[in-house]
Amino acid sequence: MPSIFSRIVSGELPAYKVTEDADHLAFLDITPLVEGHTLVIPKKEIDYIFDLPPQELAALHVFAQRVAKGVQAAVPCKRIGVAVIGLEVPHAHIHLIPMNKVADMNFANPKIKVADDRMQALASAIAAKVDGGSGLGAAATGAAPAADDTTLAQLQRLTQGLNFISESDAPLEPVSYAAPAGNLPLDKLLQVVGEPAGAKVEQVELTEFLRNHTADNGVTGDVAIANRFKALQLYLKQELDGTQVYRVGSGPQVHAYALGRDAAGRLAGFKTVLTET
Asked: What is the CATH number of the domain that holds 49?
């Protein structure tokens, strides 16, 4: 059975999300020791944090560092305390706790109650301070990142249940990112979507990227699925400006982002994972 954190990652359960990248997610603890108590997790479910491969463990801590700086900038405190307990939920996670004294880190302390509107405000405030964050602050109830409501609703409807088939199947996930106006250089794009600086980026035309999935019978022989991919492609080309696919990484798993500008000026579209060996 998936852990409660995996169910948050999949969108099955709501959370006061702060920021994410392709492999990690940060959200507020709903039973916090203090206001701003944040959890950082790898999206891949693994029980014991020190069972993560060295590169993944290092990447998790680099992500946590970014989040911690955002928490400290948004929540008045002297330091951000760090704790790994690992007994409550069988999914590796790091606690980031705003602290003014050592006692603030005592997990035997009674948990505080924070109202929903305050939790949402905290998530938004921290998200705004996370360098290179994905703009998830308004996603406090588990909804997708803030964007034009019509665009987001359409993307959710069009991508629901669709998988991109490469050497494995991966779902299409609707996304939206706050981004500076104008053409984005690739290094800035990587920062906006939360990918590592210097990662390899290949740009692909949307029609070429989806050509196998929009063929008459698609890649599964299912005409209905092929028609859904055609509808998605049409929407991305007609309703978003300058839609382009960005393949990030060099394998065996490549992150793909199909992004264009929505009416609010945000980068919107979908992301997925390609497996190429």
From this structure: 3.30.428.10
